[in-house]
Design a protein that fits this description.
- This is 2-polyprenyl-6-methoxyphenol hydroxylase-like FAD-dependent oxidoreductase.
- Pfam families: FAD_binding-like, NAD_binding_8.
- Helix content is about 30%, strand content about 25%.
- With about 400 residues, it is α+β, with helices and mostly antiparallel strands.
- It folds into 2 domains: about 180 residues, 3-Layer(bba) Sandwich (FAD/NAD(P)-binding domain); about 180 residues, D-Amino Acid Oxidase, Chain A, domain 2 (2-Layer Sandwich).
- Helix 1 runs parallel beside helix 3, helix 1 runs parallel beside helix 7 and helix 5 runs antiparallel to helix 6.
- It binds flavin-adenine dinucleotide (FAD).
Length: about 400
């Protein structure tokens, strides 16, 4: 194996995973993150297959006592005038694939703590790439520059590397958003409906999801947990400015972190779900403060490399979140790159092989997540009128 100098742009999930994997493999790695300070406050609940958590533990990327919950069941709920509090549950699914639910910030902290302090530089914004056949140079906003054998862009869904190197692959706005929030368990009237797993609550305008995650301090005991919720709903691009507060960037559809959605828009949404969801679930949303909104985009690159630049995580492929594959994809890209480089001294061959494998896998989850987005948000049938058998058939057809 040839030892490489590697610059990583972006110090979030994919960037830290790459730094750990490539650093352990013996490469000389440096991470450059645009944000100042720690990224803990960014994410909320994440769902990924339990096997992925097991493999992260096996690879010592997270500790054995990593705080998370396993979903035993997915219960469907619809509004019902005979049962206004909880609605009716036409289907309860025991999924073959088990999922674990956790806090985004716990995963980031676990990965970040494994990156040596002297390899991670925050407040470093990359503004330019000079890409060549056998090295790549990155320029930062303070006009300093550094040359590396390989530069990995893990710079997220609005990746500058994707825009510069793959201009024919723009982000596609899916036409809907995820409105999200969290509520401490102590504010629930009862925890029982969420005890066994995830509640999927259906409106014709899109699915809503409710599940427990550990508290930001890692609390997993009854009473300490937080409820994570997501409401998907269509929003035309033209209507976007209606949701923004005065401090927001009105020119593009971008994520609205807590505080950037206008109070009036948040109140209007709360009234809407009160009318459309069973009372228990509407109350969770109405009691949540500092809600936020993420527009759903997708894009899938045909190649994960160009000369001495590689892209990983959301920078390379952004799949709609319904398949729960986002975090796994970024970590997989990183681990497989380290493995591929370890197998040969022929860097070009290793990068080509890695790139084509990543693109093939990404294409599958990209297409699946589009189908799920269509079924779960854009073209939701009247689940309330479905029998259990009809729901099962509809689910099979949705992923076929
Ligand atoms: C509504 C919603 C629900 C989701 N649910 C799930 C789920 O349940 N399960 C799941 O697996 N995934 C889920 N995801 C997806 C998951 O959150 C992402 O796939 C994952 O966080 C992406 O990680 P990343 O490291 O690739 O990018 P990011 O986390 O976006 O990190 C990119 C980093 O690069 C930095 N950066 C950007 N530009 C520069 C620059 N020029 N210079 C230096 N640094 C820069 C940024 O500051 C940032 O820290 C969900 C996403 C959404 C929107």
């Amino acid at each position: 194996m040839v030892k490489l100098s590697i610059g990583i742009i972006g110090g979030s999930i994919a960037g830290c995973a790459a730094a750990v994997a490539l650093g352990r493999a013996g490469h000389d790695v440096q991470v450059f993150e645009r944000s100042a300070g720690r990224l803990e406050s960014r994410g909320v609940g994440i769902t990924i297959p339990s096997t992925v958590i097991d493999s992260l533990k096996e690879k010592q990327l997270i500790d054995d006592d990593f705080p998370c919950f396993e979903t035993e069941q997915l219960s469907y709920h619809v509004q019902d005038s005979a049962s206004p509090e909880y609605g009716r549950s036409p289907y309860v699914m025991q999924p073959e694939t088990r999922f674990k639910q956790f806090n985004w910030s716990d995963l980031w902290r676990a990965l970040r703590s494994r990156v040596p302090e002297n390899s991670y530089f925050d407040s470093q914004c990359c503004i330019e790439i000079r890409n060549n056949d056998d090295y790549s140079e990155v320029v930062f906003s303070d006009n300093s520059s550094q040359r590396f054998d390989l530069v990995i862009f893990a710079d997220g869904y609005r990746s500058m590397a994707r825009q510069l190197l793959f201009p024919s692959q723009p982000l596609n706005y899916a036409g809907y958003v995820a409105w999200r929030g969290v509520l401490e368990e102590r504010y629930l009237t009862t925890s029982e409906p969420l005890e066994k797993g995830t509640a999927l609550v259906w409106r014709r305008e899109g699915q809503s999801i409710f599940y427990f995650v550990p508290s930001p301090k890692g609390g997993v005991g009854v009473g300490e947990r937080w409820v994570n919720w997501v409401v998907y709903m269509p929003v035309d691009k033209e209507q976007w400015s209606h949701y923004l507060s005065d401090q927001s960037d009105h020119d593009q559809v971008a994520s609205l972190p807590p505080g950037l959605m206008s109070n009036a828009a948040e109140e209007a949404l709360k009234q809407r779900v009160t009318a459309e969801l069973p009372d228990y679930y509407a109350r969770i949303i109405n009691s949540s403060e500092h809600t936020f909104m993420q527009p759903i985009y997708d894009v899938c690159l045909p190649d994960y490399r160009q000369q001495r630049v590689c892209l990983i995580g959301d920078a390379a492929t952004l799949a709609r979140p319904h398949a729960g594959s986002g975090v796994m994809k970024g970590v997989d890209n990183a681990l497989s790159l380290a493995e591929m480089l370890a197998q040969t001294d022929d860097i070009e061959a290793a990068l080509d092989e890695w790139s084509s494998q990543q693109a093939d896998t990404a294409q599958q989850s990209y297409l699946l997540s589009r189908k799920l987005g269509q079924a779960f948000v854009q073209d939701v049938p009247d689940i309330a009128s479905f029998s259990e058998e009809q729901i099962i058939n509809w689910l099979y057809e949705s992923v076929a």
